[in-house]
Specification:
This protein is of the alpha/beta class and about 240 residues long. The chain is about 45% helix and about 15% strand. The protein has helices at about 15-25, 40-50, 70-80, 105-130, 150-170, 195-200, 210-225; strands at about 5-10, 30-35, 55-60, 85-90, 135-140, 175-185, 230-235. It has a seven-stranded parallel beta sheet with strand order 3-2-1-4-5-6-7, sandwiched between helices. The structure holds NADP nicotinamide-adenine-dinucleotide phosphate. NADP nicotinamide-adenine-dinucleotide phosphate binds next to helix 1 and strand 5.
Length: about 240
Amino acid sequence: MEIRGQVALVTGAARRVGRILALTLAQAGVHVAVHYGHSTQAAEETVDRLRSYGVRAEAFQADLTRPDAPVRLFRQVQEVMGLPRILVNSAAVFLPGTVRETTLENWDHHLSLNLRAPFLLIQTFARAVAQGPGKIVNISDWRAVYPGRKYLAYTVSKAALHTLTQMAAHELAPRIQVNALALGAVLPPPGKDEAYLARLVERTPGRRPIRSEEIGQALLFLLRNDAVTGEILFVDAGAHLVHG
Ligand SMILES: NC(=O)c1ccc[n+]([C@@H]2O[C@H](COP(=O)([O-])OP(=O)(O)OC[C@H]3O[C@@H](n4cnc5c(N)ncnc54)[C@H](OP(=O)(O)O)[C@@H]3O)[C@@H](O)[C@H]2O)c1
C-alpha cells in the first residue's frame, strides 16, 4: 500500500514506543491520530513534533479499558481526520503476577487493554475499511512465546494477540493485511532503570536493546509489503530464541 497521505490511528502514541511508531509514520508522510490515555501533555508535544514533518496530527483521549471506548475512538478519528487505513495497536499494560499472585483486577486490566481493545478496534476498522486497502499492525512482545512465570496476564494477553493477528489476517484477506511486531526490550518498563534493561538484554543473543530506527524500519516494511500478512515479526535481537 502507498502509505504517504494515508491516515493512521496509533494507540498509546503520546510517549515511549507508541511515540516512536507515530514519528516513523509522520516521517513517511502519514497523517497520525495520536491516541492517549492519561498523558495529555505528552500527547500535545507529540502532535506538535509530528506536525513539524508536514503531516496532519491530532490527539484523541480514550480509556481503552472501557468496552465502549475503542469503537468511539475510531469514529472520532474518522470524523476529524477521515478514514484511517492504518491501525497500530500499541497501548498496553505490563505488570507482574504469577499464577498464584495474579488478582482478578490485574487479569482484567491486561485482557481489556492488551487484547479486547485491539480486537474491538480491528473489528471496527474491518467494517469501516471493508473495500480496502488497509493495514493493521499489533505491537507484541517476545514474551508472548516465552512461558516464563512472572508476567502471567501480560504474556497470556500477548500470546492471544498473536492468534488474533493470524485469524484476522486470514478473514480480512485480501483487502486488509494484519501483522504483529513482537519487540524485544526497547525501554525499561516504568519504575525500572537502565541497569534493569542491561541485565535483561544480557541474557539474549543480541545482548543489546532494540533501537528506535529498527522498530520503525520493521513497521514500514509491514505497511508497504502487501504480500505479508499473518506474520509475527520478531524485532528482538533473538530474545525469543532463548528461554530465560
Ligand atoms: N518498552 C519495551 O521495551 C517493550 C518491549 C516489548 C514490547 N513492548 C510493547 O510495546 C507497546 C508499548 O510499550 P511501552 O513500553 O511504550 O508501554 P508503556 O510505557 O507501558 O505505555 C503504555 C501506553 O499505553 C497507554 N495506556 C495505558 N493505559 C491505558 C488506558 N487505560 N487506556 C488507553 N491507553 C492506555 C499509555 O498511554 P497514556 O500514557 O496516555 O495513559 C501509554 O501510551 C506495548 O504493546 C508493549 O507490550 C514494549
